[in-house]
Design brief:
Blueprint lengths: L20 E4 L4 H14 L3 E8 L2 H7 L14 H28 L3 E8 L4 H11 L4 E6 L4 H7 L2 H8 L4 E5 L2
Parallel strand pairs: 1-2, 1-4, 2-3, 4-5
Helix pairs in contact: 2-3, 4-6
Length: 172
């Protein structure tokens, strides 16, 4: 088994010759850099620019914050649906922005907004698996210390669970 840098054996998944490259895109500078680097590496290959959105945030924002001593307050379901649709529209817009950037760099790109049901990394890995992705390109914010432990690392989780090779772009 190949060894990469740290001396631990690493299983490298095979890259599909037919599938698209999936680029995780959130509109950040690192995500824009990932698109540019993917274009340089993969040429005019088909790519899916994926933005993950969190539908549960709509229901969290619709729930009034009350002290523990008060009885539960009913959720404004209609208001939550409106917030959820707005979040979904923003994600679609972000994915389209990323796809436009990818096309300007010479890639054959389509934008895709994917709902996150558990964790962003799970949504990225599921999208890659469901669409037969050849590879995944993801940015890394380079969180360290306690913040990294509390927030977790999306790029690390994608690396651990991806069905295909993963390219991680770090902040400069």
């Amino acid at each position: 088994m190949p060894r990469l840098g740290v001396g631990r054996p690493v299983k490298l998944p095979a890259m599909s010759a037919e599938g698209p490259v999936l680029i995780a895109y959130d509109g950040s500078d690192t995500a824009r850099r990932a698109v540019r680097e993917a274009a340089a590496l993969f040429g005019s290959r088909e790519v899916l620019v994926v933005t993950v959105w969190e539908p549960a945030l709509a229901y969290e924002s619709a729930m009034p914050t009350a002290g523990l001593e008060l009885p539960p307050v009913p959720v404004d379901v209609e208001g939550a649906r409106e917030v959820e649709e707005e979040l979904h529209e923003r994600a679609r817009g972000t994915a389209q922005e990323g796809a436009e950037l990818a096309r300007s760099e010479g890639l054959d790109a389509k934008g895709l907004a994917v709902a996150d049901e558990v964790h962003v990394a799970d949504a990225i890995v599921s999208a890659a698996r469901n669409r037969g992705a050849a590879a995944i390109v993801v940015g890394s914010r380079g969180l360290k210390g306690l913040r990294a432990r509390l927030e977790g690392s999306t790029s690390k989780a994608v690396l651990e669970h991806a069905p295909c090779p993963v390219l991680v772009m770090h902040d400069d």
